[in-house]
Design goal:
The structure holds two protein chains of two kinds. Chain A is mainly alpha-helical. Chain A is built from 13 helices and two strands. The chains are: A mainly alpha, B alpha/beta.
């Protein structure tokens, strides 16, 4: 009787998660999968086949766009790590109490507004008649207005800005758990700053680094707003392709196939990253 | 007693009709087509309530397709996009002409829209608002731009913007001396035309600042002076003209592209009474003028231009003389499947460096 009760409790607690997974993740994916394997042969006529997937591999445009998206997302991840690590280290190891909370809060505050607002903020800063261009002209560094928007660098700036918090949070958590006495011991044994970073800090922070990288990579790869708005005419992004297939081309079949390819290929990139860094998913996410 | 019974019956009838007719109209339309003051008048007069969702042609079809024609009671796609969407997805239901006050519509527009939106014997569309796309130019800085292809001229390099959508392909084709509408029914000939346009637009890409997406975006670019010549809607040009007399809409030499936005009934709409009431209400000359004053475009209502603000009329007349009006290229219905070919072309232009 008691065990029945506890079982009931277990299932009741599990049900919101199951409901979420089944109705919002699994069922739509099954539906999309069936859409993606139906090829259109005429008006309201479809047959089952893998033609939509073949389109991706036969048309260089599509896989090049994917490669470009993946490459830029990886660059974003690396850049975010390089920028985020010192910040996280400073917050976790060099500050105490109130300062620590304040600094952490300062990293959080930009995320209280929506991504759209943050991206428009960058557009106001970077556009030809924007803040940066005007300041540079005022100080005499440039003679005429300069357009900083609508190029790959603008996309990278936007992506790093939108995702840096997701790198800092896991890094701060793992660095917090690193005992200061280990670093002191390193110095006592005659280690230099660099060797201590390499031998003690980074190995300890590795799970945080990897989980931060996975989150930032996935967020950048799946981002739609930032690359489209900041990239302008050069904003070729894979999610943009999926959007146009669904909305402006009415081609749900190809759009669904692209969606599954994005899912598969991004998982492959993450798997490869885990293998290269010799980490396991349970080790990085389970902490 | 007899009179009492009749009057009671009449009272019951009146009460029941008001009870039945108080519906919620879920309207899927363009920005500016359902101004707040018009909605307030309509709600006060009929007792219906109106919920407005603003969208564009592609999103309207995509939304209705996702729900098999449900979720909205009245939609307003352009007349050339009705039959293909109906053929492919079956998301609309035919208009019951007996419930529409046809005398309120300009006859030529009503017939033209009915012809273009007839599918399987049923009429699916009624005309509401019409307008054109052409060039919006800052005449002080780029007065030489007179046709779509002039946007690729070196004199305006880096200060040009247009949308990466089908009107751009068609406008450029006409400016290059081709006739895309005539080739609509012949996919091979159309592909041939698209090939030439694709080449032109790829070589034009360095001239472009960015491809605009929403009406506010292009107005912003023109207002700030970052863009001096663009392909855009006529109303955008006239609105900017009110702030800056140099910027205005120019009908291109090869012809402005004319569209008519319609009323269609989604197949699973629930408030048809309210939908027909709305159609008959907004086509009244005084209401039509109110909509023109906010949306900036003229309507298909008889006498609807009488109450329009004088400055709007003046701008319209400055952009369109009789020859320019005669030269408007009206969109014929898009055959099903054409969007896929155009989509591939647009993707290649977007990807080109």
């Amino acid at each position: 009787m008691v065990s029945d009760r506890s079982k009931l409790g277990f299932y009741l607690l599990l049900s919101p998660l199951l409901l979420w997974l089944v109705t919002l993740i699994i069922l739509p994916h099954i539906g999309l999968f069936f859409v993606s394997i139906s090829e259109k042969i005429g008006v309201r006529e479809y047959e089952t086949g893998l033609g939509n997937y073949a389109v991706f591999f036969n048309e260089p445009l599509y896989w090049r766009t994917f490669a470009r998206t993946a490459f830029m997302s990886i660059s974003t991840t690396v850049l975010t790590l390089v920028l985020g690590f010192p910040i996280a280290y400073y917050i976790a190891k060099l500050t105490r109490g109130r300062t620590k909370t304040t600094l952490f809060l300062m990293c959080l505050i930009p995320f209280w507004v929506s991504e759209l607002v943050r991206t428009f903020g960058w557009m106001i800063l970077l556009r030809e008649t924007g803040v940066l261009s005007n300041v540079l002209q005022y100080t005499g560094l440039i003679s005429g207005p300069v357009e900083f928007l609508y190029n790959d660098a603008a996309i990278m700036v936007g992506l790093v800005y939108t995702s840096i918090l997701f790198m800092i949070v896991p890094l701060v958590t793992t660095l917090d758990s690193l005992d200061d006495s280990l670093i002191e011991a390193g110095y006592d044994l005659g280690g230099s700053g660099i060797s201590i970073l390499r031998e003690i800090v980074i190995p300890h922070a590795m799970p945080g680094i990897v989980s931060g990288c996975i989150v930032v990579f996935m967020l950048s790869l799946g981002n739609y707003l930032t690359p489209i708005l900041l990239g302008g005419k050069d904003s070729l992004w894979f999610t943009g392709l999926i959007y146009t297939q669904f909305i402006t081309r009415f081609n749900w079949e190809l759009g669904s196939a692209f969606g599954f390819l994005l899912l598969g290929l991004s998982s492959a990139v993450v798997f490869l990253g885990l293998k290269l860094s010799r980490q396991s998913l349970s080790n990085t996410m389970g902490r | 007693m007899k009179y009492g019974l009749v009057s009671t019956a009449a009272l019951v009838a009146v009460l029941s009709t008001t009870a039945v007719s108080a519906e919620t109209l879920r309207l899927l339309t363009w920005g500016g087509y359902a101004p707040d003051d018009v909605i307030a008048l309509f709600e006060a007069e009929t007792g219906h309530t109106v919920e407005v969702t603003t969208s564009n042609n592609e999103e309207m079809i995509a939304k209705l397709r996702a729900t098999n024609g449900g979720g909205f009671d009245l939609a307003q796609p352009s007349q050339d996009r009705i039959t293909s969407a109906q053929e492919e997805f079956g998301i609309y239901k035919p208009i019951d002409m007996s419930r529409v006050d046809a005398a309120q519509f300009i006859p030529s527009m009503l017939t033209a829209t009915a012809t273009n939106s007839t599918f399987d014997g049923g009429v699916y569309g009624l005309p509401h608002i019409w307008g054109t796309s052409g060039l919006v130019v800052n005449t002080a800085e780029a007065g030489q731009v007179a046709d779509y292809t002039d946007l690729c001229d070196a004199s305006v390099a880096g200060k040009v913007s247009y949308r990466l959508k089908r009107p751009t392909l068609i406008g450029f084709a006409y400016a290059m001396g081709l006739d895309p509408f005539a080739a609509y029914s012949d996919q091979e000939a159309y592909q041939e035309i698209l090939g030439q346009v694709e080449e032109a637009l790829i070589s034009c890409k360095p001239n472009v600042k960015t491809y605009w997406d929403g009406g506010d975006e292009i107005k912003n670019l023109l207002r700030s002076g970052e863009v001096v010549a663009s392909m855009a809607w006529d109303t955008g040009g006239w609105q900017l003209n009110a702030d800056n007399a140099d910027i205005t809409f120019v009908a291109p030499a090869s012809g402005a592209l004319g569209w008519i936005d319609t009323f269609v009934l989604p197949s699973r709409g629930r408030a048809d009474d309210a939908a027909y009431d709305w159609i008959n209400f907004v086509m009244r000359p005084d209401i039509a003028a109110m909509i023109t004053n906010t949306a900036g475009n003229f309507t298909a209502a008889v006498g609807g231009d009488a109450g329009v603000r004088a400055d709007l009329k003046a701008r319209y007349q400055a952009s369109f003389d009789q020859a320019a009006i005669d030269n408007i290229k009206w969109y014929p219905p898009v055959p099903a499947g054409l969007e896929t070919i155009e989509g591939a072309t647009l993707d290649r232009i977007n990807a080109a460096n």
